[in-house]
Predict the structure.
Amino acid sequence: MERKIILLVEDNADDELLTLRSLSKSKVVNEVFVARDGVEALEFLFGTGDDYDGPGVLPEVILLDLKLPKIDGLEVLRRIRAHERTRLVPVVVLTSSDEEPDLVESYRLGANSYVRKPVDFISFAEAIRHLELYWLVLNQGPPLKR
Amino acid sequence: MNNLKEIAEESPAELKRFPGSGGRSLDHTVRPKALEDRLTMVRECFCSLGTDPLENIRRFTILFGELTGAAMAFYDRLTDGMLVSWGSWNAPEGYEPASEPAGRICFDVMREEEDGVRVVANLPQSGYARTDPIVASENVLTYVGRSVKVEDSRVGVLSAFFSGDVVPCADDVNFIDIIAAGISAEEERKQSREALQEAEANYRRLDEQSKGIEELYGSLLSSSADAIVIYDLEGRVQYAGPSFTAIFGWTFEEVRGKRIPFVPDSEMEQTMAVIRGLVEEQRPCSNFETKRYTKDGRILPISLSAFRFHDADGRHSGSLVILRDITKRKQAEDALKQARDRLEAGVRERTAELAASNEKLKQEIAQRKRIEAELADSERRYRDLYERAQKGKQIYRSLIDSSADAIILYDMHAKVVHVSPSFTQIFGWTLDELKGKQIPYVPDSEQEKDMLLDEQVFGTGVPVTGLEAKRCTRDGRILEVTLMACRYDDHQGNPSGMLVILSDITDRKRAERALQESEERYRKLVEHLPDGIVVHADGNVFLANPAAVRLLGGRDNTDLEGKPILDFVHPDSLDKTNTRIDRIQEDGSVAPLTEQKLVTLDGRTIDTELTTIPLTVRGATVLMTVGRDITERKFAESEIRRLNAELEQRVLQRTAQLQAANQELEAFCYSVSHDLRAPLRSIDGFSQVILEDYVESLDAEGQGYLRRVRAASQRMAQLIDDLLKLSRVTRTDMKHDRVDLSELVRIAADGFRESEVNRKVEFAITPGLVVTGDKRLLRVAIQNLVENAWKFTRKRERAKVEFGVVHQPKRGEKDGAPRPVYYVRDNGAGFDMEYADKLFGPFQRLHGANEFSGSGIGLATVQRIIHRHGGDVWGEGVEDGGAAFYFTLS
């Protein structure tokens, strides 16, 4: 079976744990890579030097928090869309904010979806499961060079 | 050819006495007449004389025939160079007295050098038998005749033919002389009459031909046989005709401008009396007999007629004197006197009769003089007539018929004699209606003035001109007229009426008044206009209104007038001013309003706003500059600019502050949104994890506590969200659109109905309440209000929610303008008005959360939205009796 990766960009350890707990329960994903800030996310995708050839396989979907240390989520999104290799990768913004400017800017930069994290954990887990099911099972992703 | 003298000398012995003279007569058939009878005949004849000279001549001819006892007698008169018979006695059958030419014998008598009685005897043997029809056809033997003279020309011949041989005696000769003198007088009278007729004909002709009176005079003066002299008032000669030279020897050139030294001392006294009478009493002198010297010292008997003449204005300007040389007449008179003397010597006892005859003759001469006086009088009359005709023609032609002015002629009783066609046109009355009447056209207000006018013109003869008056027309309109009135006189200079000329100046007066009023308006405008007006030409001020005087710091207009306009222009504005003035003068355009600095007389610099307008005054272009002081305005403007700049600066500062605050708020909200929620999520999430993974380690109570933890964290998340919503209402930008509030209420109501289908809530929504505002925010406000009503009517069986509008003044302004107040009213739980001021505070709740759900942020949100729209919101309620929320929008 083909290896499917999710890139989770999340600086909050509690959220990371709760998200991973929700994902693991669905038994769909082979691998979840977690980047704890924007720099790590970009390094994962583009490496640190010119010789880096990437993770070898691009994630099926990137779950991207907006409020990140160092390089924030919107900047990460901009660079993903700016790069030839990653510009078609589906990105779901997963954040606490429901501020209008965040929504507008996310979609403008090419986010495929925007999900606000509910405080109610039952709702939260439900949301993550829906995302996993949708993006990894239902959605036909773009043909990507590996 | 034989002449009478020769014949007489050839046969002196054959001369015979007249049959009645006592001498021998061969004609015995005629009874000789006694001297007494013959004198009676003469007297009767003279007494029967009439005024017709020809008839008198015929009588004299008959007398001649009867006195001499001739077979026939004739008087032949020189007419157009031929001797034509004018009188006859006992003429042959078929003899035409007025046309029969006399025979040669008469011509011969005419040509005799000496006057006196001629006798030709033995006619059949003389040459006259062949030439003279009477001699040839009648049985006559002797001719007795003599010529008749007027002055020194022979005018005719008195002839008698006798059948016998006769010789006239001395008495016969006397009788013949008397008869000849009588005929002579008649001839002279005839000549005078003809001269008078001719003169009259001349005047008439000249008058008809409208020749100048000078021409008439000229022809009269130069053609007269009498010496005519015109003197000026000092008695100096102005004119002397050719006859003067012929009679007296001086040429006109010699006496021009001088007094003629020809009055003999003996005549001086009488002459001076005549002159005084003429000059002082205007008494013309007619046929005054006197004497005058000729140039070569002879003394001539003179008949003098003189009269004054007048210039065109009727002033005495000189005298005209006619001097007739009466030497010849005197001689004739003398001859007559001598003949009479001779006769008287012979007929002493009948002297009285002869004297009477003589007296008669003198009367005839006096009559002739009267005729001469008539001549002189007629000259004057015709001259007057001529002048009047000239004047009358002009008046009638140029004034009455063609005049646009109304002309009226009155008689001395102020009754109309004539009115011009233009009078009828202007006043309406025709001549027929007015003739002989007074014109009822003087308004009451002018009656007195009109009477004074009549008195002046009729009484003193002083004309009135240019008098302004009012007159009524026939149809009652009042016209304004100028009036000219003068008296006119008849040919004798007597006042005979009044001429009145009226010019209708109603329109002119009306126009004048309109012009005056208009001028007055403009003058007042100019005087009271707060803007300064200065009129200048060729660079100099010639008119300034009081505002201009004040503006330019003068005391009165003389301070400005005459000064160069550029004196008042500030040096900074000189170029601009000159350019403006040049341009106006080039194309005549009005200079646009500009701002310009001026210098006042007291040296202040003022800011003004000017416009310059070219005007045409009496054909010349002048410039009118209108200006006002805008120094204060300029100051105010600069103040406003300064304040504006300050304000702008302040606004910028405030804006910057506000922006900074906004940014802070944004950052705060952002971090609230992110950072406060994350821990809540952890609390809730891990509580759930414990409940899921460690449920067997916890008893029911522990699990309950964890659920409380979760509920609290979720509640807090809700509070955070509400708080963010509220702050977002404040932070978002406003857009102004037309918003249908009724529609928003309906949509909200529909939404709540759908969410809770079981509830029965009646909505009464006034449709079409449209306002201007931010649609998104108003939707939130309406949503909250409807939600509020929905929520608090939960316990009502028959819940009712109303949306509508009332119009009432602003609270606290009873008399203010009504404004729309929108309301949402329900019949729900209501509230205690004591807490009404707490309704709109965030998180304020008047009911327990377990009773009615909600975070208490709804009305706070509504209030913020309404305030952002510049409106007010307030609530009215009764606990358990429903609530109403009112709001206004600006």
